[in-house]
Amino acid sequence: MIKMKKVLVILSVCMLLPMSSFAQKLGHINSRELIQLMPEVKAVSAKLDTITKQYEEEFLKMRQEYESKIKEYQANVDNMAQSIREMRESEIADLGQRIELFNQTAQQDLQKQQNTLMEPIFKKFNDALEAVGKENGYTYIFDSAAMLYISENADDVQPLVKVKLGIK
Q1: Which of 164, 150, 163, 162 is nearest to 31 (CA)?
Q2: Neighbour count for residue 98 (Cβ, 10 Å)
Q3: SS (H, E, C) 34-87
Q4: Are 44 and 117 in contact (CB under 8 A)?
Q5: What letters, b where the CB count within 10 A reaches 16 and e where it falls short, cover 38-62?
Q6: Which residues, in sequence order, are CB contacts of 114 under 8 Å at separation 6+?
Q7: pLDDT digits over 79-97, tens only?
Q8: CATH, domain 19-165, list 3.40.718.10, 3.40.47.10, 3.30.360.10, 3.30.910.20
Q9: Are strands 155-156 and 140-143 parallel, antiparallel or unpaired?
Q10: According to the model, what pLDDT value does residue 1 have?
Q11: Entry pTM
């Protein structure tokens, strides 16, 4: 009986608590859109474009050398001694492998540089988002870029974060 009274008292107290204390303030933001508006992203993009062009130029040179060696080989294959033909075939195969390795290395390097250059931008974005959340009492701020449905009860906090980031 004493246990029953305790349970009833606890239930009564819980029911008397204002319902607003259980309310959660929800917000949403489109992170992709907002990050693209940050001026730092344009600088990173320009730097990556420059590096990409350098890789493309080098790849083109290697490709031209490869094609030239193939044409030369094909034009002279009938007149080559067996050992010279094998050596040329080996050179062409090696060059093809170097081109493939260069392409893989270039892609990895570009990805690594993009991650390194974007890291401070993501940190700045996350710091601004966290500040807006704390200053305005949000329990959750969802990324609408990945959401399928957003309730009309959720606030769009994108304008607040834009202000924090200094974006107009």
Answers
A1: 162
A2: 13
A3: HHHHCHHHHHHHHHHHHHHHHHHHHHHHHHHHHHHHHHHHHHHHHHCCHHHHHH
A4: yes
A5: beeeeebeeebeeeeeebeeeeeeb
A6: 44, 48
A7: 999 999 999 999 999 999 9
A8: 3.30.910.20
A9: unpaired
A10: 52
A11: 0.70
